[in-house]
Write a structure and sequence with these properties.
The complex is a heterodimer of chains A (about 240) and B (about 600).
Chain A: E1 4-11, E2 21-28, H1 36-47, E3 66-69, E4 72-75, E5 88-91, E6 98-100, E7 103-104, H2 107-115, H3 135-139, H4 158-163, H5 170-181, H6 188-195, H7 209-213, H8 220-235
Parallel strand pairs in A: 1-5
Antiparallel strand pairs in A: 1-2, 3-4, 3-5, 6-7
Chain B: E1 9-19, H1 23-33, E2 39-43, E3 59-60, H2 71-81, H3 88-108, E4 122-123, E5 141-142, H4 148-163, E6 166-169, E7 171-179, E8 182-190, E9 195-206, H5 227-234, E10 239-240, E11 245-252, H6 262-265, E12 269-271, H7 279-282, H8 292-304, E13 316-319, H9 325-331, H10 333-343, E14 352-361, E15 365-366, E16 372-377, E17 380-390, E18 395-396, H11 408-430, H12 443-453, E19 463-464, H13 465-479, E20 483-484, H14 486-501, E21 506-507, H15 517-541, E22 550-551, H16 559-562, E23 564-571, E24 574-581
Parallel strand pairs in B: 1-2, 1-9, 2-6, 9-17, 15-18, 19-21, 20-22
Antiparallel strand pairs in B: 3-5, 4-5, 7-8, 8-9, 10-23, 11-14, 12-13, 13-14, 16-17, 23-24
Helix pairs in contact in B: 1-4, 1-11, 2-3, 3-11, 5-15, 9-10, 13-14, 13-15, 14-15
The chains are: A alpha+beta (about 240), B alpha/beta (about 600).
């Protein structure tokens, strides 16, 4: 007998259901090292073609399949079935509007990203060759540029749940911090001015869910603290 | 405005519509949006989910930051790597543009790794040499650790946010709108809302990426389904050189995720079950940094001759622990993570089990070096299809010929994304207004979706799409792998054609409109099937070994008969093949004539 996995999945189809519900599935373990995405694919391709979720690269770099797995946000494609308590409860990322099943509306999340002007700003003429940057200056960007924008951290943050309309949330602040730290960027002052706001930045109360949730082991809380300290140093 | 013979299709007017939001599509969009043109990027996924994000090792440019280098040497290596099937004018253009465009990426914010002097870090990659193969290994690949694709894709997305590009996210392209004046736009399906849209444009650019999902085990994302090639075939146009499919030597055994060539560039090497560093037998000079087709074939031979590792003796080992944990964590952190997650191996201590894995589509929609889609008419092989362009992996310029060099794909998307943007601007100067379309032109696109959503279309059978897709991928994997023979491929062609005839009997369970991903998988399967048919037929017909197309029964390259590109079409539901000459004349330098390829 093949060992079976018990999974319960959040289902909601706006064309059919007035209310969401949890549906149980049983999936055989097909290989060692099986990931949650493999189980979802098994269901979709063998048991229920209507199961709806996003996926693309399948190796944790595109950020498509962020979801809530046994109460913790993560990427299905790099979450191993081993070590998950069964029945595995799979829900959409919290606090975003559900479009269908595990698919959420990320429009506001990416709109907040746009608001921090996440591109290199520089007024000096571009040099003939590359801008020089020492390996140490470049190392400052490690832990920030790798973000895959999956939304796992932001949707785990209670401050964003309550004030997401105005609080930028950890993912976007991590990116804001990346441009503040980048030795090539010349808009640090404007970037700090934009963030110096009771909601945009200071709704972070160091709950640190973001750090726990990040599937790429990044630390948005530390990045937010760095922004706060930089603002403080600017005053003194 | 509203003159279409339906009210269920929303009609949009843009200067340019780009299908696909990977590196090529976004670089092209940027070129046009920065000049104030009204650019729509229509993508079936959110832009940062595009597969460019998974590129690891880097992007080639003869900057000479680490070793002496020149674009002309890069050009030689690329032509040799292509096994002389690459078009030399396009290759010259690409290699000359490379240094300037890498620096431009840096100016746009790409977080390249750095050398001690502050310049962009460059690493050695396979098939790279100095002084036309005489001066030893070059270090030509510009890298952001082993996440270069991620760094470039996100930077391109950021630059497009700045430039005000219009994004239509999670829209699936259904049908190209063509008439006697060329391509006028595209019909698309809004996945989230389940609605039809017609994007009319003065230029339509296919930037839809590769088709790795025709194979069972692939490094490619689920979304790499060759959509642009299928749209082109459906418009009655040919696609080029599909039989040349790159098997990357080092996919993680059994699962597929890529382990970058940068591992070998940084000093890693391959071992067989006897602990032998076998590449020195196959490529005495370049060893593990020979071209990808050479290394993949060597691994296949080792496995065939019983020197594979593991209980099934079906993989080899990629050893890198001798590089030290510090170097691995600084230069190859993503590899460390992937090996740990997908094969349970800590590569700072143990080797990684690897196999040749389907990786890159050298073929695609035929274009000239300006990105214009070309086809053959009354003997002229370079007739431009007005208004239709293609860039990136989904296109075939052809700069990769029969085998792509590592580090040339990120380069291609940036170089030709930009070049295509410039060419489109010329067209926009001449075409100021949107012409009136046939009021019924939306019908084919709508029919494509309706066929799947129709409640009554049961046909008496109920074969699910997943079963057929699985069969297709298995057939391609078994019959069109690293080594090919007439017998095995003939059987493969028969099976694929048989499978294709079963497509009309398929149904899907999900009949809803909102975010129907089963519908999307069905549409993608239609696209994959068309490409698999052309790939299979082209491979069977080519009776030689060249680059990634290696035949046991025709082990030699045959320049007299076969130094030509394959053009495959599907006309009246039949695959037909045609050929055209390789462009051997570069833009300004002397041609590199074919010679024996030794690494």
């Amino acid at each position: 007998m093949t060992a079976m996995i018990q999974i319960e999945i959040y289902r909601y189809n706006p064309e059919q259901n007035a209310e969401p519900y949890m549906q149980a599935f049983e999936v055989p373990i097909e290989k060692t090292g099986m990931k949650l995405l493999d189980a979802l694919n098994y269901i979709k391709w063998n048991l229920d073609g209507t199961l709806t979720y996003r996926r693309s690269c399948g190796e944790g770099v595109c950020g498509s399949d962020g979801m809530n797995i046994n109460g913790v946000n993560g990427l299905a494609c790099i979450t191993a079935i081993d070590g998950l308590k069964q029945p595995i409860k799979v829900r959409p990322l919290p606090s975003m509007e559900v479009i269908r099943d595990l698919v959420v509306d990320t429009t506001h999340f990416f709109d907040q990203y746009r608001q921090i002007k996440p591109w290199l700003q520089s007024k000096t003429p571009t040099p003939e060759h590359e801008r020089l940057q020492t390996p140490e200056e470049r190392a400052e960007l490690d832990g920030a540029y790798e973000c895959v924008m999956c939304g796992c951290c932001t949707t785990s943050c209670p401050s964003w749940w309550w004030n997401g309309d105005r609080f930028m949330g950890p993912a976007v602040l991590l990116q804001a911090g990346r441009w503040i730290k980048d030795s090539r960027d010349e808009a640090t002052g404007e970037r700090l001015d934009q963030l110096e706001d009771a909601f945009k930045l200071y709704r972070c109360h160091q709950i640190m869910n973001c750090m726990e949730a990040c599937p790429k082991d990044l630390n948005p809380t530390a990045a937010i603290n760095h922004i706060k300290r930089t603002l403080l140093n600017r005053k003194s | 405005m509203a003159y279409l013979s339906t009210d269920k299709v929303e009609h949009h007017f843009h200067d340019v519509v780009i299908i696909g939001a990977g590196g090529a599509g976004l670089r092209c969009a940027l070129q046009l949006a920065e000049k104030g043109h009204r650019v729509a990027v229509v993508s079936k996924v959110l832009p940062t989910r595009s597969h460019t994000v998974a590129a690891q090792g880097g992007m080639n440019a003869a900057l000479g930051n680490v070793s002496s280098d020149h674009w002309h040497w890069h050009m030689y290596d690329t032509i040799k790597g292509s096994d002389y099937l690459g078009d030399q004018d396009a290759i010259e253009y690409m290699c000359r543009a490379a240094p300037q465009l890498v620096r431009e990426l840096e100016h746009q914010g790409v977080p390249f790794s750095r050398l001690d002097d502050g310049k962009i870090y460059q690493r050695p990659f396979g098939g790279q040499s100095r002084e036309f193969g005489e001066g030893g290994q070059a270090s030509r690949t510009c890298a952001a650790a082993d996440r270069t694709g991620h760094a470039i894709l996100h930077t391109m997305y950021q630059q497009n946010l700045k430039a005000g590009t219009h994004f239509y996210e999670e829209f699936f392209a259904l049908d190209l709108i063509t008439d006697e004046n060329g391509c006028q736009g595209v019909m698309a399906w809004d996945i989230a809302n389940g609605e039809y849209h017609l994007f009319q444009a003065k230029a339509v650019i296919l930037a839809t990426g590769g088709a790795g999902r025709i194979f069972k085990t692939t490094t490619n994302a689920h979304i790499c389904t060759g959509d642009g090639g299928a749209l082109t075939l459906d418009a009655g146009l040919p696609i080029e050189d599909m039989e040349f499919f790159q098997f990357h030597p080092t996919g993680i055994a059994y699962v597929g995720p890529l382990i970058t060539e940068a591992v070998r560039g940084e000093g890693g090497y391959l071992e067989n079950a006897e602990g032998e560093r076998f590449m020195q037998r196959y490529a005495p000079t370049a060893k593990d940094l020979a071209s990808r087709d050479v290394v993949s074939r060597a691994i296949a031979v080792e496995i065939k001759e019983g020197r594979g590792c593991g209980p099934n003796k079906d993989y080899v080992l990629l050893k890198l622990d001798h590089l030290g944990a510090d170097l691995i964590l600084e230069k190859l952190p993503n590899i460390h993570e992937l090996a740990l997650r997908f094969s349970g191996v800590d590569c700072t201590k143990e080797p990684i089990p690897v196999q040749p894995t389907a990786h890159y589509t050298m073929g695609g929609v035929p274009t000239n070096r300006f990105g214009e889609v070309v086809y053959t008419q009354s003997g002229d092989t370079d007739v431009v299809m007005p208004g239709l362009y293609a860039v990136g992996e989904g296109a075939c310029v052809s700069v990769h010929g029969a085998n792509r060099l590592g580090g040339n794909s990120l380069l291609e998307i940036i170089v030709f994304g930009r070049a295509c943007g410039n060419q489109v601007m010329k067209r926009l100067k001449e075409h100021r207004y949107h012409p009136k379309l046939n009021p019924d032109c939306w019908q084919d696109g709508v029919a494509r979706v309706d066929r799947w959503l129709d409640e009554h279309n049961q046909n008496g059978s109920c074969e699910p799409i997943a079963v057929l897709r699985d069969e297709m991928q298995s057939i391609m994997q078994t019959h069109f792998s690293v080594y090919r023979t007439d017998e095995v491929m003939s059987e493969g062609v028969e099976k694929i054609e048989d499978l294709a005839s079963r497509m009309s009997k398929l149904i899907i369970e999900d009949k809803n409109k909102v975010f129907n991903t089963e519908l999307i998988e069905a549409l993608e399967l239609e696209n994959l099937m068309a490409l698999a048919r052309v790939t299979a037929a082209g491979a069977l017909a080519r009776k030689e070994s060249r680059g990634a197309h290696a035949r046991d029964d025709y082990p030699e390259r045959d320049d007299e008969e076969w130094m030509k590109h394959t053009l495959g079409s599907i006309l009246d539901n039949k695959v037909t093949l045609d050929y055209k000459k390789v462009r051997t004349r570069p833009m300004t330098v002397e041609s590199f004539p074919p010679k024996k390829r030794v690494y």
